[in-house]
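Fill-in record for EFCB1 protein.
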Amino acid sequence: AAMSRKGRKLLVDSLTRSAKHFTKSEVECLIKLFDTLVAKASSQFAGAGFDRTVFRDTLYNAFGMTDDVVLDRVFSTFDRDNTGCITVEEWVEGLAVLLRGTLEEKMKYCFTIYDLNGDGYISKEEMFQMLKHSLLIQPADEEPDEGVKDLVEIALKKMASTYLFIPFLLQDYDHDGKLSFTDFEKAVRDENLLLEAFGPCLPDIK
């Protein structure tokens, strides 16, 4: 829907405050892009936003993100109210984390992507699902799933290595085979490369 000049200014000011990592002119550009994407979307959202298909196409074209499972999870992370529609607020604030987020913000974002069922833990099964779709499997591989399982075990050991000095925590951890956000955060702070340990869900630096 068309917005008055005053309404647009208020929106820009509000999003510049809430998105934090963008300047006012950048927010204005992102709102214009949002309007273009809404025009491409189906009319079911009455101009309020755009759907999963437009979102996925945009991330593919802009950042080369191709993994279907990851793209669906990124969409769910942006779509905070779970309506199936990305609003302008969700668009700008989501991109602020995706493109300019602090390490803390990106850790929370990546953890949410990997926590497929939203229970606050990344289980072995969730690691397997993410890695299964993000690895390049050769046609000649007889048991590709076994290779993924091995990789999950390696990742778990690496994530848990932070706790080697607290044996009882490591013991409990090994029993449930899950990573809490605290586990994930400590491992990533120790080795930043573990941020996307279970699949690429952030654009590369380019």
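KEY FINDING: Residues 162-175 have pLDDT under 50 and may be disordered.
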